[in-house]
Specification:
The complex is a heterotrimer of chains A (240), B (284) and C (230). Chain A is 75% helix and 0% strand. With 240 residues, chain A is mainly α. Chain A is flat. Chain B is globular and about 50 Å long. In chain C, helix 7 packs antiparallel against helix 9. The longest helix of chain C is centred in the first third of the chain and has 35 residues. The chains are: A mainly alpha (240), B alpha/beta (284), C mainly alpha (230). The interface between A and B is medium-sized, with 22 and 33 residues.
C-alpha cells in the first residue's frame, strides 16, 4: 500500500491559524460533548414526560404520547435535522425566520433541539417500559396511602422505574452522543467534522480518523464507567 | 340470585343511613391505635354496589356494612369478587352503580377528595407492596410526611413506635428486599397504621406467604382486632375468623350470598354454596 | 411561508426521486440487511464459540463498531476501501470503487455489529437441552447450529431483526455525506437546484414516515402473531 504515514501531523499548525491539528480535534471533541449533554438534558426531560403520559389512565394523554413517539421515531434523524435547520425558518413568520437564520451558533442550537426531540422519543419508550415493568400493586399501594397521581409517580413509580432502565438509558445516552455527528451536515464543527476537515487540509486521512476513533472509544469508556458507578450507588440493598 | 343478601343479625350493626358518622370519630392524638367502642356507628356502608368490566359483571348489588370496632371477614372462592369488593371501599376499583360511605364520606361523589379519604383508610395488600427503593423507616414515614404533612421527627417517632409494635425495631434501617415475607407484611401493617386510619382493609394478607410465616402476621392482626380496630379482612384463614371476627360475609360470583354472625356462619350456613365452600376449606 | 408551497416541484420530479433515489435506498437497505444478518450471525457464533482468540476479536469488533458514529464509519470506509482493494488486487495505487459497492460494504460491516447482538441474544435464548438433544442424535457443531439452534433463534428474533432493518433503512440517508443519490440525496439535489428546500424536505419526511410507520406496524402485528404461536 502506498500511503505515507505521518503521525507528527497532529503537532503541525492547522491552516486555520489558531493552533495545531490536535487542538482542532480537541475543539471538535468539546463541541461533541457539549452538544450531547445539552440535548440529553432536553431528551431526558421531554422523554420522561412523554413516557409518563403513555402510562396515565387518560386516553388523551396516551394518544399524545404515542403520536409523539411515532412521529419522531419514523423519520430519519438527518431529515429531522434538515427540517429544523432549513425548513423551520421558512415556515415561521418572516421576522422570526430571519431572527433564527441570523442566530450566532445556529448549527449548535439547531443540533441540540433536533437531537433533544429525537432522543426524547427513545427515552420515552424506556420510561414507559420501566413503569410498566413495575408490579401493578405498587401504583395501588401509593394510591391507597392517599398519594395523588403526581405523588405516586414522584415517590413510588419513577424512582423504581429509573433504576430498572438505567442500563438502556446509558445506551441511549451513548446513541445520542454518537448522533451529534449527524449535525455536521448543518455545519456543526464537532469531532467527526473536524477529523474530516483535517483530512481535507492535510491529506493524512487515516491519522485523522484514527484519532477521532480513539477519542470516541475513550468517551464511551468514560460514560460506561460512570454509568456503572451510578448503578452501584443507587442500587437498593436486598434487590437482585 | 339464589339467596338474598341479608343485613347482619348482630345487634352492633344496624344498616345505618350513610353519612351520619362524624368524620373524625376515633381520631385521638396520643393513641397509637384508635380504641374501638362498639357504639353502633357505621364505619363502612356498602349500598347496592355493582361493577362491570365491560360486559362482564364482577359485583352484583352488594350491600353490607361494617360498624365501628367491628371485624368482618370476607371469604369465598377465587373469582368471587371479594378482593374487588374490598378495593371499592377506598375506590381503588371504580364501580358503576350504588354507593359506599366511609366514615361519613361518599366514595362515589365528584366532590370527594379521594386521596384524603384514602389516607384515612389503611390497606394491606396480598403482595405487601412496600416501596422497594425506600428503607423501612422511609416506608413508614413517607406518606405521613407527604400526604398528612407531618413533620419529619413526628413521622419518624410514630413510624418507629409502630415498628416496635409489630416487633421489628431492629430492622428500621433495612430495605424491604432484605426482609422475609412475613416481616414485610408486618411492616406493611405498621405503615398503614402510621396514618391513623379509622378503618383497616386487608386483602388476602397471608396468601402470598410461606406457611411458616402466616402465624406472625395473623398474630399482629388479632392484636389489632382486640384493640378495637375496625377491620374488613378478605382471607381464607378460618381460624382467624373464628377467633376474632364478629361477622363473616360469604361471596360467590360477585354476590354477597351470606352475611352472618360468626357463630351462625360456622354453625349452620344457610346457603348451599357456603356449605360447600366451608366443607372444602375445612377439610384439611 | 407555506402559502407558496409548490406541489409541482414534487410531482415533476417523482420519477427521479423514486426510480433513482428510492431504488438506491431500498437496494442498499435490502442487500446490507441480508449480508449484515449473515455476517452478524457468524460474529455472534464466534463470540459464543468459547475459542479464545476468535471470541475476543469478535467482541472487540462489535464493541468498536457500536462506539463509533455511523457518519465516521462511512468516512472511514470511503477512504479505506480503495486501499483494501489495492491490497487485495496487488495494485500499487488505490482502486476506484463505485459509490454503491462502497456504501454497501460500509453498511454491511457496520450493521453486522448490531445484528450480531440480536442474534447472540437469540442463540442464548435457545435452551441448552436443544443442543444436547442435537448432539445426542449425533449432530456435530455446524449441523446442530444450522438445523436446530439457528432456525429457532432466527424465528424468535425476527421482529427485532426487522426493526433493526427499519433503523438501517433510515440510516442509509446518511450516505448524503458522500453526496450519493439515495432518496434523500435525490430530494436534496432537487431542493438545491430549484431552491425548493421546504417542499422537498417535507416531502422526504412524509415518505420516510409513511414507509417506516407502515413497516413497524406490520412488525408489531407479526410480533403479536409469533407471541401467540409460541
Amino acid at each position: 500500500m502506498n500511503y505515507n504515514w505521518n503521525w507528527g501531523i497532529f503537532f503541525e499548525p492547522s491552516p486555520e491559524g489558531t493552533g495545531t491539528y490536535a487542538d482542532m480535534l480537541l475543539s471538535g471533541l468539546l463541541w461533541t460533548i457539549v452538544t450531547a449533554l445539552c440535548s440529553w438534558v432536553m431528551a431526558f426531560t421531554i422523554g420522561s414526560l412523554i413516557g409518563v403520559m403513555r402510562t396515565l389512565p387518560s386516553k388523551t394523554a396516551n394518544a399524545i404520547g404515542t403520536a409523539y413517539v411515532e412521529l419522531f421515531r419514523n423519520i430519519p434523524l438527518l431529515v429531522q435535522m434538515f427540517l429544523w435547520y432549513f425548513v423551520l425558518p421558512e415556515v415561521l413568520p418572516q421576522s422570526w425566520g430571519t431572527w433564527l437564520k441570523q442566530l450566532p451558533n445556529a448549527p449548535f442550537y439547531t443540533g441540540v433541539v433536533c437531537l433533544g426531540f429525537f432522543t426524547a422519543s427513545r427515552v420515552a419508550e424506556q420510561v414507559r417500559a420501566g413503569i410498566q415493568a413495575l408490579p401493578r400493586g405498587q401504583r395501588m399501594a401509593g394510591t391507597a396511602m392517599g398519594f395523588t397521581v403526581a405523588q405516586t409517580y414522584r415517590y413510588v413509580l419513577l424512582p423504581n422505574a429509573y433504576r430498572i432502565i438505567l442500563p438502556p438509558l446509558t445506551s441511549e445516552f451513548l446513541n445520542n452522543l454518537k448522533n451529534t455527528s449527524v449535525a455536521l451536515t448543518i455545519g456543526l464543527l464537532e469531532l467527526t467534522a473536524r477529523a474530516r476537515s483535517m483530512q481535507e487540509f492535510s491529506f493524512q486521512v487515516f491519522e485523522a480518523f484514527t484519532a477521532a476513533t480513539i477519542l470516541y472509544v475513550l468517551i464511551n469508556l468514560v460514560v460506561i464507567t460512570a454509568a456503572s458507578f451510578i448503578e452501584r450507588s443507587v442500587a437498593v440493598p436486598g434487590q437482585r | 340470585m339464589t339467596s338474598t343478601p341479608m343485613p347482619a343479625p348482630t345487634p352492633g350493626t344496624p344498616v345505618a343511613p350513610a353519612g351520619q358518622a362524624p368524620a373524625d370519630s376515633g381520631l385521638q392524638a396520643g393513641n397509637l391505635i384508635q380504641p374501638g367502642t362498639r357504639t353502633g356507628e357505621t364505619m363502612i356502608a356498602i349500598d347496592n354496589v355493582s361493577k362491570w368490566y365491560g360486559e362482564f359483571q364482577v359485583l352484583t348489588n352488594c350491600t353490607t356494612s361494617v360498624a365501628k370496632g367491628e371485624v368482618v371477614v370476607v371469604c369465598g372462592p377465587s373469582g368471587s369478587g371479594k378482593s374487588t369488593l374490598i378495593k371499592t371501599v377506598n375506590a381503588l376499583e371504580p364501580f358503576q352503580k350504588g354507593q359506599i360511605t366511609v366514615a361519613g364520606t361518599k366514595v362515589l361523589d365528584k366532590s370527594t377528595n379521594l386521596p384524603k379519604l384514602r389516607s384515612r383508610v389503611g390497606m394491606v395488600f396480598q403482595h405487601f407492596e412496600l416501596f422497594p427503593h425506600l428503607s423501612i423507616t422511609d416506608n413508614l414515614t413517607i406518606a405521613q410526611r407527604k400526604v398528612l404533612g407531618r413533620g419529619a421527627e413526628d413521622a419518624r417517632k410514630r413510624g418507629l413506635d409502630l415498628l416496635a409494635r409489630v416487633g421489628l425495631s431492629a430492622h428500621a434501617h433495612k430495605f424491604p428486599g432484605q426482609l422475609s415475607g412475613g416481616q414485610q407484611q408486618r411492616v406493611a401493617i405498621a405503615r398503614a397504621l402510621a396514618m391513623n386510619p379509622v378503618v383497616m382493609l386487608f386483602d388476602e394478607p397471608t396468601s402470598a406467604l410461606d406457611p411458616e410465616m402466616v402465624g406472625e402476621v395473623l398474630d399482629v392482626m388479632v392484636e389489632l382486632a382486640k384493640e378495637g380496630m375496625t377491620m374488613m379482612v378478605v382471607t381464607h384463614e378460618m381460624g382467624f375468623a373464628r377467633k376474632v371476627a364478629d361477622r363473616v360475609i360469604f361471596m360467590d360470583r360477585g354476590e354477597i350470598v351470606e352475611d352472618a354472625h360468626k357463630d351462625d356462619f360456622f354453625g349452620k350456613p344457610r346457603s348451599e354454596r357456603a356449605q360447600t365452600f366451608l366443607s372444602k376449606i375445612l377439610q384439611h | 411561508m407555506l402559502a407558496n408551497f409548490d406541489f409541482s416541484v414534487i410531482t415533476s420530479n417523482l420519477p427521479y426521486l423514486f426510480f433513482d433515489g428510492m431504488r438506491f435506498t431500498l437496494g442498499l437497505t435490502a442487500m446490507a440487511a441480508g449480508m449484515g444478518i449473515v455476517l452478524g450471525t457468524l460474529i455472534a457464533m464466534a463470540r459464543l464459540s468459547g475459542v479464545p482468540g476468535l471470541k475476543h476479536v469478535a467482541k472487540v469488533y462489535v464493541e468498536l463498531m457500536r462506539s463509533l458514529p455511523l457518519v465516521l464509519v462511512i468516512f472511514w470506509f470511503y477512504f479505506l476501501v480503495p486501499y483494501i482493494g489495492a491490497y487485495v488486487t496487488g495494485s500499487p495505487n488505490p482502486i476506484q470503487v463505485g459509490a454503491f459497492p462502497s456504501a454497501l460494504i460500509t453498511f454491511t460491516l457496520f450493521e453486522a455489529a448490531y445484528f450480531s447482538e440480536i442474534m447472540r441474544a437469540g442463540i442464548q435464548s435457545i435452551p441448552k437441552g436443544q443442543t444436547a438433544a442435537a448432539s445426542a442424535l449425533g449432530m456435530n457443531y455446524w449441523q446442530s447450529m444450522v438445523n436446530v439452534v439457528l432456525p429457532q433463534a432466527f424465528r424468535n428474533m425476527l421482529p427485532l431483526l426487522l426493526t433493526q432493518t427499519i433503523v438501517l433503512f433510515q440510516d442509509t440517508s446518511l450516505v448524503y455525506v458522500l453526496s450519493l443519490t439515495d432518496f434523500l440525496g435525490a430530494a436534496s439535489k432537487v431542493a438545491q437546484r430549484d431552491g425548493r428546500l421546504v417542499e422537498m424536505y417535507l416531502f422526504a419526511a412524509v415518505v420516510y414516515f409513511a414507509v417506516c410507520f407502515t413497516a413497524s406496524f406490520l412488525v408489531r402485528r407479526l410480533q403479536a402473531r409469533v407471541a401467540i404461536i409460541r
